[in-house]
């Protein structure tokens, strides 16, 4: 059987250490063994996120975490700003609309990032907006926002700031407390090297205060209920124990490497991937300066959506390379390469050579070897890359 | 290290086959391998639940499933009947209240079951009630409702019927379609022999119709969104892949045994547990005729809540036996033995002997050997038990 190279932007492949850890026997989630596990996981998350805030855990996908942010900090009819760069930004706004929030939407074209000045203008124009929602890394387009600049604007105007860091946290520099982020949502199946099933949310004291006043209906995702339990090392409802074993081991691996090294590794593999893709004559969706370190979106080299589908299927069935297509309006127009979590240089070589070979098979590429050569060269450019501003390239 | 006998009413211990299955490598949740896994899991759930209805899956604990039922079938201000026998019935009503539902509560004393005649009276008195919520098996008290009788009343009056079967499904006879149940909620960590993290909900055509009309805000738990994706063998948001591997293997084990045999096994281990506990001079919380086949609640043999805590701690630390205390108002007054999922006669012998030994150590028991003798005798009483009405004993 063909071994798969799973390179979608989550779920990510898991290290064997994590798979083994996840297969441990169940424990009582109201007992001392679980209390120790929860404490270890939360400590690790706080370490990786550079925060002293609580990190609340819910059995849910990242979308559940996004809903939790909305229902805890907003009230029906309240005006709030949602900055969206694609499918997941749109989803966050749609959640708020489903709950009757008066959504002001700042949207950009696919591949573009949010301009902090636009945020500032909207906040100046609408002084009744008290909360800003922004995606750190848009998984659907491979774009990373300049979060420090956006945070400076929103916090400078005294707004509560909620960040979707589902596909960035642990991979792209993110210092929650230094940036003053109030609610930061992430998910186990991205950079954390764990299976899907857990969403983790850092919550600032100001966000708790807001939650105490906000009026949207909630129960499962209520911050106060979860905090009450986590303060005594339990969770409100039954936690996904095997996912927590896994993320605990994933965090152990991250600690061994050191978070700055993890960030540098993601910057490197992303740079290698981009170089390889461009060497094949392909074009990137994301604009220069905002290209993601966790997912690269590539404009389709095929003439039709069906031909793109055929290429991705051929790569999967012939070479075991599993890439993602486009979402929503980008379906049939792009494909995406995930390079986050359990990924290193050797994976990039494998991915880009398999992609090149598959393209050649489908008549979309005439020469081979260009991708690997470009990736090899890009791997050596670390000094230059280090000079770029952290978190945005 | 002491091997634990985990006998709380979920999470349950997992068979090695399930643990190994859960440790398989991740796959693309938008690809053909996941489509096959989802199809297999859903088919197995429909088989076990005796239903042709859709079974929708959400990454969430059972409480998330209970919230999903509420937000999809009700509207704010609408009157609905919640029949509650304890903590989880109360929780379901509290969820509805959090969403502004006009909750009519039919509550009974801890250990008692819902009287179908009381349900009939309330429905006669409040013709504006269109929906009934009932717990099949109350995990906090070890009481099983007479679901066929309750369903006959609610469906006889043309009401939509939602059932919390989190701690009963796959263990206690439950034929969803034969009883006309509209929404049935269960969770992976109970009888299904899988880790926590997935809630599974069967949804009738009438429930979908109601959802299309109902007005409570929802996004993550929306039935229509999930159905749209599951109809093409995907899930709306990223699914908990490792839990799905596990439940697929758990379902394979259930199929090998045969669901009627699984039900009979649960009836037998419950009967053995009750006999053993009574032989030790202990009293059961649940009334005769409604004692659960999945969890036995036992009145505390200790004089104080602290002494009960000491007993449970001693059983855990000295004998590796992990039992559950009481919840909410029953804290310090009862303890609970879970016997669901991966459990057989041999586990009962181990559990009741360890409990007896621990009680003797703590001066709560003078003779030993009574529990095992009673369990051994009760194991042979199958013919008698089979004469009792299915699902209620």
Protein described:
Two copies of one chain form a homodimer. Chain A is α/β, with parallel strands linked by helices. Chain A folds into two domains: 5-9 and 258-386, Aspartate Aminotransferase, domain 1; 16-255, Type I PLP-dependent aspartate aminotransferase-like (Major domain) (Aspartate Aminotransferase, domain 2, 3-Layer(aba) Sandwich). Chain A is 45% helix and 15% strand. Chain A has 15 helices and 14 strands. The first copy, chain A, has helices spanning 16-22, 32-49, 62-73, 87-98, 116-125, 147-156, 176-179, 205-213, 223-230, 241-257, 259-279, 305-319, 345-361, 370-379, 382-386, and strands at residues 5-6, 54-59, 79-84, 102-107, 131-135, 137-138, 143-144, 160-164, 183-187, 198-203, 295-299, 321-322, 324-325, 334-338. In chain A, the strands form four sheets. Chain A has a seven-stranded mixed beta sheet with strand order 2-10-9-8-5-3-4, sandwiched between helices. In chain A, strands 11-14-13 form a three-stranded antiparallel beta sheet, with helices on one face. In chain A, a hairpin with a 4-residue loop joins strand 6 and strand 7 (143-144). In chain A, helix 2 (32-49) packs across helix 10, helix 11 packs antiparallel against helix 14 and helix 13 runs antiparallel to helix 14. The longest helix of chain A has 21 residues, at 259-279. Mean pLDDT of chain A is 96; it is low at 386-393. At the A-B interface, helix 1, helix 3, helix 4, helix 10 and strand 13 of A face helix 1, helix 3, helix 4, helix 10 and strand 13 of B.
Sequence-ordered SSE layout with sheet pairings:
The structure is a homodimer.
Chain A: E1 5-6, H1 16-22, H2 32-49, E2 54-59, H3 62-73, E3 79-84, H4 87-98, E4 102-107, H5 116-125, E5 131-135, E6 137-138, E7 143-144, H6 147-156, E8 160-164, H7 176-179, E9 183-187, E10 198-203, H8 205-213, H9 223-230, H10 241-257, H11 259-279, E11 295-299, H12 305-319, E12 321-322, E13 324-325, E14 334-338, H13 345-361, H14 370-379, H15 382-386
Parallel strand pairs in A: 1-12, 3-4, 3-5, 5-8, 8-9
Antiparallel strand pairs in A: 2-10, 6-7, 9-10, 11-14, 13-14
Helix pairs in contact in A: 1-10, 2-10, 3-4, 5-6, 11-14, 12-13, 13-14
């Amino acid at each position: 059987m063909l071994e798969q190279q799973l390179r979608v932007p989550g779920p990510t492949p898991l290290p064997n250490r994590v798979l083994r850890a996840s297969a441990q026997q169940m424990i009582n989630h109201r007992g001392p063994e679980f209390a120790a596990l929860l404490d270890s996981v939360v400590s690790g998350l706080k370490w990786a996120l550079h925060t002293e805030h609580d990190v609340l855990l819910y059995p849910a996908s990242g979308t559940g975490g996004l809903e939790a942010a909305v229902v805890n900090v907003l009230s029906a009819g309240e005006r709030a700003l949602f900055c969206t760069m694609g499918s997941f930004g749109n989803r966050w706004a749609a959640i708020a609309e489903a709950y009757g929030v008066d959504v002001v939407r700042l949207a950009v074209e696919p591949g573009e990032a949010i301009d902090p000045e636009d945020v500032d203008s909207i906040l100046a124009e609408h002084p009744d907006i008290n909360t800003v929602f922004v995606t750190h890394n848009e998984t659907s387009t491979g774009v990373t926002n300049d979060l420090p600049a956006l945070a400076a604007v929103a916090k400078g105007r005294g707004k509560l700031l909620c960040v979707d860091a589902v596909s960035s946290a642990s991979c792209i520099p993110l210092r929650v407390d230094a940036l003053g982020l109030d609610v930061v949502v992430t998910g186990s199946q991205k950079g954390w090297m764990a299976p899907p099933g857990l969403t983790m949310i850092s919550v600032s004291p100001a966000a708790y205060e807001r939650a105490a006043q906000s009026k949207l209906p909630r129960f499962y995702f209520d911050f106060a209920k979860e905090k009450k339990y986590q303060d005594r090392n339990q969770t409100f409802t039954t936690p996904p124990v095997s996912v927590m074993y896994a993320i605990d081991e994933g965090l152990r691996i991250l600690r061994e490497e050191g978070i700055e090294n993890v960030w540098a590794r993601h910057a490197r593999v992303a740079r290698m991937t981009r170089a390889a893709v461009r060497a094949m004559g392909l074009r990137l969706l994301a604009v220069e300066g905002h290209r993601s370190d966790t997912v690269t979106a590539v404009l389709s080299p095929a003439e039709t959506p069906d031909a793109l589908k055929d290429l991705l299927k051929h790569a999967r069935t012939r070479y075991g390379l599993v890439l993602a297509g486009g979402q929503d309006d980008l379906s049939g127009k792009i494909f995406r390469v995930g390079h986050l979590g359990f990924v290193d240089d050797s994976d990039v070589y494998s991915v880009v050579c398999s992609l090149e070979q598959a393209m050649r098979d489908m008549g979309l590429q005439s020469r081979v070897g260009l991708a690997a050569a470009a990736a090899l060269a890009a791997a050596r450019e670390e000094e230059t890359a280090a000079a770029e501003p952290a978190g945005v390239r």
